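Colleagues,

For the teaching module next term, I've prepared a clean inverse folding example: a structure given as tokens, and then the sequence designed for it. I'd like students to try predicting residues themselves before seeing the answer, so please don't circulate the second half yet.
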């Protein structure tokens, strides 16, 4: 399954890049979060350093996803692979790869495109895929909205 979402920021790629590596978020409330979709809280580099092979974490109200950075081209491209998680979907999601592309716009801003590739296993796979797609789309939009709020304050 692939979920792809784009967002335009009024800031340069150099200004947006740090949000991918270190940001605390307060996403808007949504009925999907009340129904169990993990509400994003923080993205961080637990060792304080980025680069290929470094660790990244995504923290939500439902748990943590530990990731490894597999592409690091600051400030234009970041790709990460899930290594482990304590969230409920771990039973039927065997892999997640997130890819962020940051492209400057003609207005001096940045267009960020996030592509998430998820491998779902087990029975009722198509139902799981549909529910995960909706949840991930909400997470993408929520994170982008939170990053936009953070970028406008800096």
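(Answer key — instructors only)
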């Amino acid at each position: 399954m692939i979920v792809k979402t784009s967002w335009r920021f009024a800031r340069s790629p150099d200004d947006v890049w740090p949000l991918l590596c270190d940001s605390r978020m307060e996403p808007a409330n949504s009925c999907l979060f009340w129904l169990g979709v993990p509400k994003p809280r923080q993205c961080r580099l637990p060792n304080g350093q980025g680069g290929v092979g470094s660790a990244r974490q995504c923290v939500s109200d439902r748990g943590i996803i530990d990731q490894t950075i597999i592409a690091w081209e600051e400030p234009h491209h970041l790709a990460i692979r899930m290594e482990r998680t304590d969230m409920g979907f771990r039973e039927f999601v065997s892999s997640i790869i997130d890819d962020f592309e940051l492209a400057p716009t003609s207005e001096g801003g940045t267009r960020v495109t996030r592509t998430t590739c998820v491998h779902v296993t087990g029975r009722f796979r198509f139902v799981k895929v549909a529910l995960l797609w909706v949840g991930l789309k909400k997470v993408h939009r929520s994170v982008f909205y939170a990053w936009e709020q953070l970028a406008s304050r800096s």
